[in-house]
Here is the input.
Amino acid sequence: MDGNGRWALKRGLPRLAGHKAGTENLRRIIRACVEFGVKYLTIYAFSTENWGRPREEVNGLMRILEDVIDRELQELKDQGVQLRHLGRLDQLAPNLQEKVLFAVQTTEQNSRLIVNVAFNYGGRDEIVQAIQQMIRDGVPAAEVSPELVSRYLYTAGVPDPDLIIRTSGELRISNFLIWQAAYSEWYVTPTFWPDFGKEEFQKALKTYAERDRRYGKVAAPEYEGSNG
Ligand code: FPP
Here is the structure.
């Protein structure tokens, strides 16, 4: 959900106003996912590196998450949304941990759309915790496989992302799902997240539908005609 800060700056507003506008947009995109039949949506809301932002912004983001759970949980339940959390919960304030767990538990029977909230999430951190847990479990080296690693990640049981959308024009992965994104398709747009509405989301999905996903192989007809 990149570009909230610049969206606010352009309007002479504080950065947190951009994050609030970003949260409004998240509501629109969740509704659009339900309408378009998207089954999984993962949002990158707070990275393990975001702790390095000014204290006021960090506290503001924590408060926004808390408010969103208080305000939106009922509508999310009504829409059939299941919430999941990706990341380290234990570094959040105890009352926020409880709220996140409550939101996860009260929506766990829903299946129309699964919304993974990456909050205090980092891809490297996720891989490190997976390795630590495998060692604690005494997994023999010969049994470590891509499938096993996937089962130790926060995203266990969730398919790898088909499409990753990065708003605000930045061309980097920023520690997001670095394992899971091995063969994801990318859509990068200069639009700041608060302005990335339903129409552009639909355009991104249409662009994705036209992609030829080869997973490192070659397209079938080309393969038949090639000599190696
Ligand atoms: C990136 O834009 C955005 C964030 C780091 C925070 C996103 C969080 C929310 C919209 C709300 C909180 C979470 C939930 C789940 C409701 P940026 O600040 O890096 O923008 P910039 O690059 O323009 O400065």
About this structure: The domain at 4-206 is CATH 3.40.1180.10 (Undecaprenyl pyrophosphate synthetase). The chain has one domain: 4-206. The mean pLDDT is 96. The two ends are 42 Å apart (CA to CA).
